[in-house]
Write a structure and sequence with these properties.
Blueprint lengths: L1 E4 L9 H10 L5 E6 L11 H8 L6 E6 L7 H7 L3 E5 L6 H10 L3 E6 L17 E5 L14 H15 L4 E5 L7 H7 L3 E4 L1 H4 L4 H8 L5
Parallel strand pairs: 1-8, 2-3, 3-4, 4-5, 5-6, 6-7, 7-8
Helix pairs in contact: 2-3
Length: 216
Amino acid sequence: MRVAPSVIAANFSKFQEEIKKVEEASADLLHLDVMDGVFVPNITFGPLIVKAINEITDMELDVHLMIVKPEKYLRQFIEAGADWISFHAEATEKTDECIKIIREQNKKVGLAISPPTPFDRVKKYVDKLDFILIMTVNPGFYGQKFLPEILKKIEQTRDWIVIHKPDCLIQVDGGINSRNVVELDRAGVDIVVAGAAVFKSDDYEKAIKDLKCLKV
């Protein structure tokens, strides 16, 4: 299991220190939630902050765009330093164009789906993806409770991927902790995004090892 701590849960008054701590704790990616106040009822940050974060860490940046019409902004986030980029299937009518833009810049491309969206709606795109991000809460705010009914969607996605695109990774985001990560591991998840489970813990190294299903 790979772990991508979500900086939305970090202490922003000690931001550089927080990022260094998760880097030293063997996090695999750094997850950045970009929200526009339109697609989701919250606002976070844009390319300038992504660029600033990129300048203080060597970790790969996993940028999750929760914004409408992502095709208009993808190049800005790529130029800012995004290494992995996911956008929501529900937020654009130009999915193929978004995938093409990201691919042309040799970045990892991911397609995100919210809890109500069935996998069947997006499986035609999977052969073009590096990863699919399955939300296990409704996007917009961190700290929500994990929706266990999404496990069936994850299993369905994994079964399809194993047959048709085995190199496409499954990432999940929302309400993930050391307890439910065991179920996610069994369901075939490759990457977990965790905010509070890491940044609100007393020991980042232990928290990340727990999420990787490793013994400390």
